[in-house]
């Protein structure tokens, strides 16, 4: 699902929202989440999952073309951990789809 798919879904579910309002709502939520993570905060959405910032320590990598060693600096990267309800829903749905594929074969 893309950002535009999310806007379309929101506008379709809530008829009182115009496409522009739905787009603004999605942008506002994503901007708020980005700003919180930039400040180092953790975001938790019950039943869905949590977003946090993980630290990747500095390390030595290799340039694939030349093979020479390259120093890679420390990084902070976003991390998503799905919640229990989401994990179970995905697992149940994929098991259901896998069962349907087995029956067709």
Describe the structure.
Keywords: DNA recombination, DNA-binding, Transcription, Transcription regulation, Translation regulation. This protein is one of the two subunits of integration host factor, a specific DNA-binding protein that functions in genetic recombination as well as in transcriptional and translational control. It comes from Variovorax ginsengisoli. Belongs to the bacterial histone-like protein family. InterPro entries: Hist_DNA-bd, IHF-like_DNA-bd_dom_sf, IHF_beta. The model has no long low-confidence stretch (mean pLDDT 92). The protein folds into two domains: 1-40; 42-105, IHF-like DNA-binding proteins (HU Protein, Chain A, Irregular). Helix 1 packs across helix 2 (19-38). The chain is built from three helices and five strands, in the order ααβββββα. The protein is extended and about 55 Å long. Helices cover 50% and strands 26% of the residues. It is of the alpha+beta class and 105 residues long. The chain has a three-stranded antiparallel sheet with strand order 1-2-5.
